[in-house]
């Protein structure tokens, strides 16, 4: 004795946000039912586990049917199969394209290829995010990447339009696409302390200032790729460390600009030459794709670490000296 | 050559990829009507083709226009092999044939394939130019309006209700033809879909002809059903109520302060109506200019000319004397056709059938065998009437007789007045059955209700032999009138039998009419159960003289106009003004409860008391009906859904034996269902059932019975007694204890229910002095050996005369089961109400939030279950389904599930299928107790701005307007079809605009230009908080879906889920294309699901129907107020959307 078939179809498609989230998180129907039972929905609505199971299966089915539409969010708005109010549509899309920071940190800058996808089970074990959810997120990245890769125009705007995402989410995707396209290395141990939002911020800066789109707004606006010419020109910065005059001039300008604005000003001033050399060396190498990939690691190794090492050193010395100094 | 059909194929979108190599499609379209086919050019390499074709013109007979659908096939062009079909769209052009319905079909329609489901959409434009047909012998009936709604449609008034119309057509089922063995499933499904389209069209045309013959112009309560008889063929049959309707001018007065739909009519139309009422055909007088431009069928002289020889001039005159409502033929006829046996209708009474079927039945059964078998199930009269649920004995003989006499007199005179008018002949033909498929009536129309009458008969099917159809090359139906097809008459005769039986039952109840009438079948293999049921009633014939009454109406400023449809909302005492019933002033709130039959001659044991409202007339103690609760009825508290569920095993048998077994089981099934209903009713402290629908389904090894109704407490009827149980062996203490426990439980439940449904009638203090009725005891007993309705001590002697007869044997498993069934019905969760009628008594302030849904469950049984086990499973199945619905819809609380329509089926030996379609409607709790209309309106208005009204509407507009523009069209295309690569490439290639510009264009589009018009669906005849301003035509669609990859499509649930969603989508799209924004009176009449999991296959057939309408929000009426009837779809949609 069993229920062989059980469906519910509303003229307006009924979707429960909570169940949707469980589905997105990759829970199986049974797990989802457990979570819901723990959530206390049963007592609220005088329902039985049976009812809950039926409802959850039904919702899962609906979501599965919607999924192919969600792959092309613009379709969701003008498809006829499901009658979904616009605010619901927006919710569906936004949540579908939402991702876990811990997951994205694992794949950020990696090639969005089949090989990476194969490794997702490791990512899943590592992050505790279900494999299903990992796959969805990965596929989302890949889909967005594929669509905007060849598109002209501002990257964020393209993503927003094609995937009908809210602004912040579109920016995040822009960062992901940008990182994937330029294959920035983010997985090194030294970079582990950085969050996705840190990288996203950097990506935003790079997109806005270093890409083709940033340079030429009208014709060849491609936001995904760094502006090669610009990178080429960066080579010329070497003069800032080779030419003594320029170095001094540079130093004085920077110091003037930063004086009073940072509490590590003194340390910065003291080590300016080293720091500047680090930065300029990174910049000068960016014309090589390999070095672009190592951009962040280089920043950390060549600039932040020495500097913080210096800060650390200075800090200890300072405290020691203060201690040792008896009036 | 009376009609020109024009079609234009504009564009397609979201097409499937047909060429794997390029991931694109080279699509073109074939447009076919009748035998003419046109083709568009191939639009190469696109999933969003822009054909923008010329107008394809078909010059056809209007008869064909009615019968045939326009068939649009989308194909993928293939240079080297055969073109692949992508899918089809069938367009029913009937709505375009009536001037008052839609004028154009325009919009995106889903392209449907029976194997793959919806595969993209196509944008089409369809128009019809119709020329007047002056031929009096024509076979078409263009212009007759059809409504599924079982009341007078809002925005119309009934000038005359002519009565019952029925028709059926038969054909071979393509699925069972020899050719089916060699053709693909797709071809077979498409043949079937097309055939059913054709048959429905033909059926509608024929019914239309009958309506025209009767002098009507519309069919209300149109109910069309399919009988898939398998080997023996396919029957499409329909019943309806012929009416003459007149559109209430809906030029909305600028100061429409009252949102009720009749307000405009009050201001605009009624004065004219009062004056012109006497001349009924002239009532097509005021709007003559309008009529003139329509079809000949409307202009009185022409249309009636078909009726018969000498009619023309007379007819145009006759109805003048008759007045508005006419129901002349029935009583007279009854006396004519009286020598009909009441309950037993052996087959040989209808010699026509046996003798006429000259061709020997191709099945093994010999002629005589079938003849014997085709006897009706014989219920004893008592049993049947008991099942019709009437109360118990009483007096008041004075009024019953005179009343009937009066009626007869009136109708007689009506007939006399009509003189020899040929229309009386029409009535002889069609008015034979005084049946009305309507379930709701204008106030004052329904005088008395007798009770439910029903009849069933078991038939053996054999092949519908039809030599003319041996040639099936095109499925073009032959004109049935051109040859004598005797076999449809077999089916006709079967129904005839049943109808006669119903009629005689009604007569036994002292009633001249049957309202809320419906017919249904259940087929299993070669056995078919035909069922019909309705409510015996007496209808008012006084309306003929009420010209002045109408004026009175107007003066009293009641929002109800007698012949308009009445209130949009339920207003408890609204009908009080409509107290124009009989010569005695009968209170409208209770009048219909007064017994119509002669109390000295009650056909069944019943307990009568004086009406608790007016104290003047007799009422039964319980009233069962199949109609909706009259709006004017006095009701205490709220109502609720009451279901009786029963499952009985049956021996497997073949043919004749099977039919006999079923016939023998049926009466018991009905009786038990009735007992259950009665007990459940009492358990809820209620005394009347409305909307009663009993469905009996046959399977190989079992019979299912499901009775659904809405229980209410009618103030006019006496308070129901409680339920008392007793043990057989009173000496035994444990029994005593057990019994008293149960008794306590029952009493508690009753008390709880009374509280829940707010049933607190004024205490009945005294019986009227001198009442011949013994004081009813406050509790009745549950007992099994006797008709439930006679619950009184005084009735004791009617049964066995022994006290034991009342005793419920606790160790009787059946009894335990009964009690168990009683108590296991779980109460609805807080905030929910449910009913299966149009309206819920006690709830008035609906918000605009409605959610129509369909839910289907199939349950697999284990073998070897006892009756008891089966019952429990079946009952649980229904209960759990309800519980799931409550849970699903919890966000709408407080809300009421209205029009809960359950259908059960036994698709296979061990499967039970239950399908429910209903609408959940939210209401405002705070306002619950307030009766003031003002507040109610406000909440409605407030609610309108809420949730589900916010979809945008401008998609169609954008797409259309941009299409002809050569510059923007490729861009618009690429926008609509959001395929990224297509879009990108088209941008690159085709955009002549500077990039910056194009970007801004794009950004605008992708947001605003892409939403789909919202189409509401509801099984009710109205939409809360809105006014229906136009009926656009009937929606009657039939789809087949089949899969050979069941697992891949998500199993049976996934398959059916998708299919139902697709059906909804197609209904919505067709309604939107007609210019509508809602479907009312929607119903899913057929959902036949078959699976073969081993072969990974499944097939499903769905038939849905409803009325496409255009509505406007009442709030908009008030705020904008200048919206006129000429408002086009787009403007009204636009207004709606923002």
UniProtKB/TrEMBL annotation, chain A:
Pfam families recorded: FIBP
A GO CC term assigned to this protein in UniProt: nucleus
GO molecular function: fibroblast growth factor binding
Protein name per the record: Acidic fibroblast growth factor intracellular-binding protein B-like
Gene Ontology BP, a term: platelet aggregation
Domain of life from the UniProt record: Eukaryota
Alphabetized InterPro entries for the sequence: FIBP
């Amino acid at each position: 004795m069993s229920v062989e078939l059980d469906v519910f179809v509303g003229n307006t498609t009924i979707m429960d946000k909570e169940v949707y989230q469980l589905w997105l998180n990759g829970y199986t129907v049974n797990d989802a039912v457990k979570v819901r039972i723990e959530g206390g929905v049963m007592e609220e609505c005088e329902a039985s586990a049976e009812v809950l199971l039926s409802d959850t299966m039904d919702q899962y089915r609906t979501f599965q049917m919607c999924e192919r539409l969600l792959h092309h969010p613009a379709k969701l708005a003008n498809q006829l199969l499901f009658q979904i109010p616009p605010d619901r549509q927006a919710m569906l899309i936004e949540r579908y394209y939402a991702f876990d920071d811990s997951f994205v940190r694992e794949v950020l800058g990696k090639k969005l290829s089949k090989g990476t996808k194969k490794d997702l089970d490791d990512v899943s074990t590592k992050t505790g995010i279900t494999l299903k959810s990992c796959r969805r997120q990965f596929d989302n990245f890949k889909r967005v990447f594929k669509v905007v890769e060849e598109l002209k125009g501002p990257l964020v705007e393209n993503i927003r339009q094609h995937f009908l995402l809210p602004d912040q989410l579109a920016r995040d995707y822009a960062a992901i696409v940008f990182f994937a396209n330029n294959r920035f290395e983010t997985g090194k141990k030294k970079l582990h302390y950085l969050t996705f939002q840190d990288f996203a911020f950097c990506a935003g800066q790079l997109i806005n200032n270093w890409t083709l789109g940033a340079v030429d707004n009208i014709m060849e606006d491609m936001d995904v790729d760094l502006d090669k010419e610009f990178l080429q020109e960066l080579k010329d910065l070497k003069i800032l460390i080779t030419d003594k005059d320029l170095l001094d001039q540079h130093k004085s300008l920077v110091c003037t600009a930063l004086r009073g604005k940072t509490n590590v000003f003194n340390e910065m001033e003291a080590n300016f030459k080293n720091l500047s050399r680090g930065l300029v060396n990174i910049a000068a190498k960016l014309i090589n794709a390999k070095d672009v990939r190592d951009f962040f690691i280089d920043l950390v190794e060549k600039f932040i670490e020495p500097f913080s090492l210096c800060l650390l050193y200075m800090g200890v010395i300072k405290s020691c000296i203060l201690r040792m100094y008896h009036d | 050559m009376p009609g020109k059909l024009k079609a234009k194929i504009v564009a397609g979108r979201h097409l499937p990829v047909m060429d794997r190599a390029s991931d694109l499609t080279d699509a073109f379209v074939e447009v076919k009507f009748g035998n003419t086919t046109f083709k568009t050019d191939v639009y190469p390499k696109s999933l969003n083709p822009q054909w923008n074709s010329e107008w394809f013109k078909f010059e056809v007979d209007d008869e064909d226009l009615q019968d045939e659908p326009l068939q649009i096939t989308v194909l993928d062009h293939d240079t080297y092999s055969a073109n692949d079909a992508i899918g089809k769209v069938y367009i029913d052009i009937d709505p375009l044939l009536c001037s008052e319905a839609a004028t154009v079909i325009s919009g995106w329609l889903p392209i449907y394939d029976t194997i793959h489901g919806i595969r993209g959409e196509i944008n089409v434009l369809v128009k019809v130019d119709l020329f007047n047909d002056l031929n009096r012998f024509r076979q078409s009936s263009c212009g007759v309006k059809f409504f599924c709604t079982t009341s007078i449609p809002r925005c119309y008034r009934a000038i005359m209700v002519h009565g019952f119309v029925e028709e059926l057509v038969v054909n071979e089922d393509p699925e069972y033809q020899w050719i089916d063995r060699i053709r693909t499933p797709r071809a077979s499904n498409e043949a079937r879909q097309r055939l059913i389209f054709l048959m429905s069209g033909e059926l509608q045309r024929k019914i239309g002809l009958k309506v025209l013959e009767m002098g009507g112009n519309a069919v209300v309560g149109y109910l069309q059903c399919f009988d898939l008889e398998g080997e023996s063929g396919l029957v499409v049959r329909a019943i309806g109520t012929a009416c003459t309707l007149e559109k209430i001018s809906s030029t909305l007065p600028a100061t429409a302060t009252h949102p009720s739909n009749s307000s405009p009519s009050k201001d605009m139309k009624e004065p004219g109506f009062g004056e012109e009422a006497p001349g009924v055909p002239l009532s097509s007088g005021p709007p003559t200019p309008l009529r003139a431009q329509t079809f000949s069928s409307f202009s009185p002289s022409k249309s009636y000319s078909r009726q018969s020889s000498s009619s023309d001039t007379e007819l145009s005159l006759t109805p003048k004397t008759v007045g508005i409502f006419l129901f002349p033929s029935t009583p007279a006829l009854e006396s004519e056709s009286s020598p009909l046996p009441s309950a037993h209708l052996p087959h040989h009474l209808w010699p026509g059938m046996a003798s006429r079927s000259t061709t020997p039945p191709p099945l093994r059964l010999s002629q005589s065998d079938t003849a014997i078998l085709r006897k009706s199930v014989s219920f004893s009269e008592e049993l049947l009437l008991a099942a019709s649920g009437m109360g118990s004995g009483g007096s008041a003989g004075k009024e019953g007789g005179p009343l009937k006499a009066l009626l007869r007199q009136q109708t007689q005179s009506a007939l006399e007045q009509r003189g020899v008018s040929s229309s009386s002949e029409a009535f002889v033909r069609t008015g034979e059955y005084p049946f009305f498929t309507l379930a709701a009536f204008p106030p004052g129309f329904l005088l008395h209700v007798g009770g439910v009458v029903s009849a069933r008969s078991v038939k053996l099917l054999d092949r519908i032999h039809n030599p003319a159809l041996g040639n099936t090359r095109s499925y073009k139906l032959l004109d049935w009138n051109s040859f004598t097809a005797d076999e449809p008459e077999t089916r006709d005769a079967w129904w005839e039998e049943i109808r006669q039986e119903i009629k005689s039952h009604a007569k036994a109840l002292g009633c001249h009419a049957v309202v809320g009438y419906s017919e249904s079948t259940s087929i299993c293999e070669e056995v078919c159960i035909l069922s019909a049921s309705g409510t015996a009633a007496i209808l008012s014939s006084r309306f003929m003289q009420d010209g002045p009454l109408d004026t009175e109406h107007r003066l009293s400023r009641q929002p109800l106009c007698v012949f308009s449809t009445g209130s949009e909302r339920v207003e408890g005492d609204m009908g009080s003004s409509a107290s124009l019933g009989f010569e005695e002033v009968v209170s409208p709130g209770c009048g219909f409860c007064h017994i119509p039959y002669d109390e000295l001659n009650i056909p069944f044991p019943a307990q009568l008391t004086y009406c608790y409202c007016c104290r003047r007339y007799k009422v039964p103690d319980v009233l069962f009906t199949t109609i909706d609760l009259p709006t004017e009825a006095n009701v205490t508290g709220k109502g609720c859904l009451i279901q009786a569920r029963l499952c009985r095993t049956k021996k497997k048998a073949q043919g004749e034996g099977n039919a006999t077994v079923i016939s023998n089981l049926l009466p018991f099934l009905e009786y038990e269902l009735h007992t259950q209903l009665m007990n459940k009713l009492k358990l809820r402290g209620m005394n009347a059932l409305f909307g009663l629908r009993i469905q009996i389904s046959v399977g190989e090894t079992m019979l299912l019975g499901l009775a659904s109704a809405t229980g209410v407490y009618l103030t006019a009827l006496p308070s129901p007694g409680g339920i008392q149980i007793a043990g057989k062996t009173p000496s035994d203490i444990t029994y005593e204890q057990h019994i008293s426990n149960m008794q306590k439980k029952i009493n508690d439940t009753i008390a709880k229910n009374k509280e829940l449904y707010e049933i607190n009638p004024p205490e009945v203090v005294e019986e009227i002095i001198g009442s011949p009725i013994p004081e009813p005891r406050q509790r009745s007993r549950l007992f099994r050996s006797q008709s439930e309705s006679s619950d009184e001590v005084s009735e004791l002697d009617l049964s066995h005369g022994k006290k034991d007869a009342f005793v419920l044997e606790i160790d009787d498993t059946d009894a335990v089961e009964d009690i168990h069934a009683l108590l296991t019905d779980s109460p609805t969760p807080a905030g929910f109400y449910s009913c299966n009628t149009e309206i819920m008594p006690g709830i008035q302030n609906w918000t605009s939030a409605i959610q129509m849904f369909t839910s289907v469950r199939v349950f697999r049984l284990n073998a070897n279950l006892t009756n008891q086990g089966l019952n429990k499973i079946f009952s649980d199945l229904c209960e759990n389904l309800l519980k799931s619905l409550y849970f699903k819809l919890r966000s709408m609380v407080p809300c009421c599930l209205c029009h809960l329509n359950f259908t059960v089926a036994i698709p296979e030996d061990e499967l039970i299928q239950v399908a429910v379609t209903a609408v959940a409607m939210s209401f405002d709790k705070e306002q619950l107790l307030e009766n003031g209309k003002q507040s109610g309106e406000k909440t409605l208005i407030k609610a309108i701005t809420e949730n589900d009204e916010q979809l945008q509407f401008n998609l169609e507009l954008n797409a259309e307007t941009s299409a002809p523009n050569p510059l923007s069209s490729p861009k618009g295309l690429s926008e609509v079809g959001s395929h990224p690569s297509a879009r990108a490439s088209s941008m690159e290639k085709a955009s002549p605009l500077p990039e910056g510009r194009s970007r801004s264009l794009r950004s605008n589009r992708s947001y605003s230009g892409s939403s789909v018009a919202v189409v509401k669906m509801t099984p009710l005849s109205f939409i809360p908080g809105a006014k229906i301003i136009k009926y656009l035509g009937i929606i009657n669609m039939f789809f087949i879906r089949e899969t050979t990859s069941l697992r891949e499509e998500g199993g049976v649930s996934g398959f059916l889920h998708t299919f139902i969603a697709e059906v909804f989508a197609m209904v919505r799209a067709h309604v939107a294309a007609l210019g509508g924004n809602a479907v009312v009176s929607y119903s899913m009449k057929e959902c036949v699901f078959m699976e073969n999991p081993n072969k990974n296959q499944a097939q499903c057939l769905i038939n849905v129907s409803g009325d496409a309408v255009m509505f406007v929000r009442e709030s908009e009426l008030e705020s904008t107020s200048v919206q006129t009837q000429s408002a086009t779809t787009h403007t009204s949609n636009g207004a709606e959307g923002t």
